[in-house]
Amino acid sequence: MAGSSFFERVWRPVGALDLGLTLSPHPHGGGDPSWRRTPDGATWRACRTPHGVGTLRIVRRAGEVHATAWGPGAEWLLETVPELLGAHDDGLGFAEMIREAESSPDASVRARAAFVGELAVRHPGLRIGRTGRVFEALVPAVLEQKVVGREAWQAWRWLVRKYGDPAPGPVPEGLTVMPSPEVWRRVPSWDWHRAGAEAVRARTIINAARHAAKLEGGSSAAADRMLRALPGIGVWTSAEVRQRAHGDPDAPSVGDYHIPGLVGYAFTGEKTDDAGMLDLLEPFAGHRHRVVRLIELSGIRPPARGPRMAARDYRSF
């Protein structure tokens, strides 16, 4: 099979690692063409690396992570496996922060810290990993702006399948590398329309593609400044990108339709807004996104009431 030569690596993580929880933020919907979970327990990732397209397969065996990669980007993908799986993640710093908050003179802070500490004990293998690929995280984040998830995921699937590149190696059927920035710039207006993405999001992605090279590398703070300087990209989109590309544990999704209400309900029994969420998360500064992830995994949900965000079909407009 073309592109079937491969490289391998075995990595032994220090401490607990839940592969599924750590990788779960990266696929955009169950049918994401760039990610696949196969019945043998392996996770597959198709990626456009700094050295070209590549495919990564990772599987957990006892206390080790076995990784195999194909394509021009294979060596880069293997080198960055520890980062993808959160080797850099400061779990000890988080635990120390919880202990300090549990000693706060404020009873409400102590209660929140105890609750978060319990959630952390339930999910010791959760890590905040980083892909190191900003533009890869940016395109689906823009598609997810102000729409329901299934609408954005449908657009992402359609565009990647039509304009992406086949993943190298003996891969699961349909595994696809997202299009290059050059290709995103050339997607015609009618195909954005067919995908279900209206002109505003299309323009945002096309413009960002012109600056894609400048967005890569650097710190999360630098990425935040560069991203928010681009038209159509605000605090929510920047946070969604930095959570994934930089593994930033302190990038909560301000402006999200659901998360402030979820955080408020988990801590107080009442929904809140962005300002209220940030106030509740303030004792956890440095790890606010991590705390949100733990709350999402808790299963706690506010009662369903009020209007739901409806899916829209722009293809009929």
Description:
- Helix content is 46%, strand content 12%.
- With 317 residues, it is α+β, with helices and mostly antiparallel strands.
- The strands form 2 sheets. Strands 1-5-4-3-2 form a 5-stranded antiparallel sheet. It has a two-stranded antiparallel ribbon with strand order 6-7.
- A hairpin with a 5-residue loop joins strand 2 (35-37) and strand 3 (43-49).
- The protein is globular, with a radius of gyration of 20 Å.
- Residues 308-317 have low confidence and may be disordered.
- It is an enzyme of class 3 (hydrolase).
Annotate the secondary structure layout.
Blueprint: E1 6-11, H1 19-23, E2 35-37, E3 43-49, E4 52-61, E5 64-70, H2 74-79, H3 81-84, H4 91-102, H5 107-122, H6 134-143, H7 149-163, E6 165-166, E7 176-177, H8 181-186, H9 189-195, H10 199-210, H11 212-215, H12 220-228, H13 235-245, H14 259-268, H15 274-281, H16 288-298
Antiparallel strand pairs: 1-5, 2-3, 3-4, 4-5, 6-7
Keywords:
globular; Endonuclease III, domain 1; 7 strands; 317 residues; EC 3.2.2.21; two-stranded antiparallel sheet; alkylated DNA binding; 16 helices; five-stranded antiparallel β-sheet; alpha+beta; disordered C terminus
Radius of gyration equals: 20 Å
* CATH homologous superfamily classification of the domain at 8-86 and 128-245: Hypothetical protein, domain 2
What pattern of helices and strands is seen along the backbone? EHEEEEHHHHHHEEHHHHHHHHH
Structural class: alpha+beta
CATH architecture of the domain at 8-86 and 128-245: Orthogonal Bundle
Largest sheet: 5 strands, antiparallel
Query: How helix-rich are the residues, as a percent range?
Result: 40-55%
Number of helical segments with 4 or more residues:
16
Per the CATH scheme, the topology name of the domain at 8-86 and 128-245 is Endonuclease III, domain 1
Mean pLDDT: 94
